[in-house]
Amino acid sequence: MAKQPMLKFVQVDRVMPEKRAADVRKEDFDEIYAEYASAKAEEQASRCSQCGVPYCQSHCPLHNNIPDWLHLTATGRLEEAYQTSQATNTFPEICGRICPQDRLCEGNCVIEQSGHGTVTIGTIEKYITDTAWDKGWVKPVAPGAERSESVGIIGGGPGGLAAADMLRRAGIQVTVYDRHDRAGGLLMYGIPGFKLEKDIVQRRNDLLADGGVEFVLNCDVDTARFDEIRAKHDAVIIATGVYKSRDLSMPGSGLNGIEIAIDFLTASNRKSFGDTVEDFDNGRLNADGKKVVVIGGGDTAMDCVRTSIRQGATSVKCLYRRDRANMPGSQRETQNAEEEGVIFEWLSAPKGFTGDDKVSGVMVQKMRLGQPDASGRQAPEVIEGADYVEEADLVIKALGFEPEDLPTLFGQPDLPVTRWGTVKAAFQTGETEMDGVYAIGDIVRGASLVVWAIRDGRDCADAIIARFNSKAAVAAE
């Protein structure tokens, strides 16, 4: 009888790849986890219970065929594992690095619920695709036949790039327009290198270009440019993401030294490319030698605190108005940050800032959790008389993002938006009320996960292909 390759979660413990020591990794922006060796990847994949109802798959926005590629990995069929992974996910090596698996696939793993420790799905996904790149299994798109239809995509983030990939596979001509000098959006400029190495993003961009995707970079889309793009293409996808930072309006909020997260992270990432960044070089967006306070509890806040540590801050504190159990960011990232020396001040919220011209401190009010609010989470309440001042040379606001006013920015008053400013688009297809104009990702959902943007991009591409096919069929009659 053949040896059972799976269901080894009782005999084999959960083991993550080795993590570099905190005092070493905080000195650079390199990946903090080592790669699995093939034997260890096979061993960890073999822990999968191959359950009849795979909750890992159903709780993945892309519905990745996780049990299948775990089985293929466990049995040494790695190229097939890659093909299975790539079939549902345009960027598996990126999702393996930055997806909050603890809230999605791994958090819903059946053996995790039974107390045996989840299968390390994310790290195995990363290992599969990194190996595929090393072995040369990842190839540029080569459609069977080219088509005459073209699509313009405004925004080169994960949603736009996922749509571009799917459209090119169908032979459709694709042009991506991006405001930056490199495509990738927040993958390139928002997420630090210790979570997502930039060569990982760039090689995907290069692969898309090799497959026939045209990139128009340094392209700010205004009224004239939007009309030009719409006239040039048979369909347009708006995939701009949300970049407008939420702000604080309180005493002292206009002081120098109070910055927004996206500016701070973008400056750091640009320096990693070797770019000249004046506001980093003059110290404004550089944490070196400073007492840093980050306000917020999401993944962006975690990126800011861990970046500050690596830049040489003398102290880094994170203020969050709820407790640890209620923070929206990844628990894994919080643990990594604590290991690296970040101090979390839970149940703490700013009420103002001290300083003359430049910030010298954050006025903090202590909170407690009261009754649940409309979202179902316990609402923070101020504890009277417990205020104090937290010293700070640099304050970074990581309070989330809101959409830009696209109808005004693009000069398109007919572009429908919600009361939150997000674009109104049909579920699954991304189709808007403007003929031939689609919208996907965060500009529709609000600030969300990369994996959801990929899902939207793929779904929208399918809808556009179906529309083109329908038009072609009618024309042929």
UniProtKB/TrEMBL annotation:
InterPro entries: DPD_II, FAD/NAD-bd_sf, FAD/NAD-binding_dom, GltD-like, Helical_ferredxn
EC number assigned by the record: 1.4.1.13
MF terms (GO), sorted A to Z: 4 iron, 4 sulfur cluster binding; glutamate synthase (NADPH) activity; metal ion binding
Segment forming the signal sequence: none
Start and end residues of each Dihydroprymidine dehydrogenase domain: 25-136
Occurrences of domain FAD/NAD(P)-binding (ranges): 151-457
Record keyword Acyltransferase present: no
Cofactor: [4Fe-4S] cluster
Keyword Signal listed: no
NCBIfam families: gltD_gamma_fam (TIGR01318)
Protein name (record): Glutamate synthase [NADPH] small chain
Gene from which the chain derives: gltD
